[in-house]
């Protein structure tokens, strides 16, 4: 596979994030962070209107708006989408949809219980690591954090933008990560997820976006790759005669 200057950096960042995630899983900090918001009777904020209605139901519906914007932008680009090529717009859409589908599929197959299902927080299930692959008696389907993917799935915009619009790419990355984190934490406060569920969703969405970007650069014709790597220079006017 053709390596670019960015590929080692992306790989190292992805690998470092994975190592930190595995360390988090081994630390037991999930339960430490959950306990301040729960008692033996459950999570006091589980049905709070801001968390349950605005940041859960409302945000889930609102997440479709940028999806529709991206899809329509393949053929009718506006704003930021009008400043990148159609291949990058297609890449952005494909990356986002793949991330959403992957997180939903993993969540559907998961046997991991939500915090509010656990016996120490008013439920009936026994705690088990999400890597234990065993049913603990709860409802399951709680890993990774599906709701947080409504923000994290859009990190693919960073890769689609960065070669032509690096400043906007970084801003988009920060915004996508912040949105995913807010949605993930709001669910943690309700008892719907542990912090690790949110962090793994972020890592998976980033990794999918990175792999798609590598595949696109590998499959693109050489002239297109060279053109995409060249910075956009301002037009130079000839001096008046």
Show the helix and strand layout.
Elements: H1 6-27, H2 29-34, E1 38-39, E2 42-43, H3 49-62, H4 64-73, H5 86-109, H6 149-152, H7 156-161, H8 166-190, H9 195-219, H10 222-229
Antiparallel strand pairs: 1-2
Helix pairs in contact: 1-9, 3-8, 4-5, 5-9, 8-9
Percent in helix: 55-70%
Q: Count of helices?
A: 10
Beta strand count: 2
Compressed to H and E, one letter per element, the order equals HHEEHHHHHHHH
| Cα distance spanning the termini | 50 Å
Strand content: under 5%
| Main sheet specs | 2 strands, antiparallel
Number of domains: 1
User: In one word, what is the shape?
Assistant: globular
Structural class: mainly alpha
Residue windows where pLDDT falls under 50 for at least 5 positions:
230-241
Output the strand order for the largest sheet.
1-2
Rg, Å, rounded: 21 Å
Roughly what is the average pLDDT, rounded to an integer? 88
Give an account of the 3D structure:
By secondary structure, the chain is mainly α. The protein has one domain. The protein contains ten helices and two strands. The chain has helices spanning 6-27, 29-34, 49-62, 64-73, 86-109, 149-152, 156-161, 166-190, 195-219, 222-229, and strands spanning 38-39, 42-43. It has a two-stranded antiparallel ribbon. Helix 4 (64-73) runs antiparallel to helix 5. The model is unreliable at 230-241 (pLDDT under 50).
Name the descriptors.
single chain; 241 residues; mainly alpha; two-stranded antiparallel sheet; disordered C terminus
């Amino acid at each position: 596979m053709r390596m670019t200057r960015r590929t080692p950096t992306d790989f190292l960042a992805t690998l470092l994030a994975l190592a930190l995630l595995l360390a988090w899983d081994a630390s037991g900090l999930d339960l430490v962070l959950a306990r301040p918001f729960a008692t033996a009777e459950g999570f006091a904020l589980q049905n709070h209107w801001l968390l349950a209605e605005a940041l859960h139901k409302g945000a889930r519906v609102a997440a479709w708006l940028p999806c529709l914007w991206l899809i329509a932008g393949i053929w009718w680009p506006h704003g930021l989408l009008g400043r990148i090529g159609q291949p990058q717009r297609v890449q952005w859409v494909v990356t986002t949809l793949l991330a959403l589908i992957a997180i939903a599929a993993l969540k559907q197959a998961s046997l991991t219980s939500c915090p509010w299902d656990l016996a120490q927080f008013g439920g009936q299930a026994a705690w088990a690591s999400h890597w234990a692959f065993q049913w603990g008696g709860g409802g399951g389907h709680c890993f990774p954090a599906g709701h947080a993917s409504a923000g994290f799935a859009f990190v693919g915009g960073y890769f689609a933008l960065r070669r032509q619009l690096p400043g906007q790419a970084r801003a988009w990355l920060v915004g996508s990560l912040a949105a995913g984190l807010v949605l993930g934490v709001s669910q943690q406060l309700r008892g719907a997820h542990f912090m690790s569920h949110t962090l793994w969703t972020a890592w998976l969405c980033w990794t999918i976006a990175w792999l798609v970007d590598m595949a696109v650069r590998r499959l693109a014709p050489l002239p297109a790759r060279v053109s995409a790597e060249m910075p956009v220079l301002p037009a130079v006017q000839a001096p008046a005669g």
